[in-house]
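Hi X.,

You mentioned you wanted examples for the new student's onboarding notes, showing what a folding record looks like when two proteins sit in one file. Here is a clean example. The first protein comes first, with its sequence line followed by its structure tokens.
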Amino acid sequence: MPDTDLSDDPSSNDLADTRTAWAEDRTMLANERTFAGWMRTGMACIALALGLKAVFKDTDYPLVAKGVAEVFILVAVLIFWAAVTKCRETQKRMKEHDVEAQSHQRMTTLASILTLGALATGVILWLL
């Protein structure tokens, strides 16, 4: 990665290299923020599923209420894995550069844990 500490009289190439390095850093940080946003959206779907179960607990059609809640559990799982896929694609494009990003393994692990939590929540919703 180019040095971002510039001399007192930097050349135009030094300035361009520095701007490029900063742009690459911003891109990776934006990718990580986007990943976190997708994770929050997935968790909001799980919360919505729990809320639906609570609202419709005394309904005459409990299987319908549970089924609708399960839809949001499945959407959460899809969101988690869409986030991992998009993050991986962005990291592959940036791999040619010197940018250091969160490891793909860390993001996959987080998505896996959240998926297990979502599925466990779905099972609990059926048992209630």
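Then the second protein repeats the pattern, sequence line and then tokens:
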Amino acid sequence: MTPQYDEDTRKALESLRNSVAKALDRKRRLGQYAVVWKDGKSVYIGPNPPDSKEPPRSKPAQR
């Protein structure tokens, strides 16, 4: 059963879906991974995700 939304809400959801699709497509074309929510937890999709055992960085990497 699909919920019924008013016109403004439907337009906002459509805009958000389009924006997310564009962002994920861009990451895919650049060969980057993305983090998405699936089955109640965050998961990496795409190539070369970070190792889950690697601790998160607290500051940007030095170049």
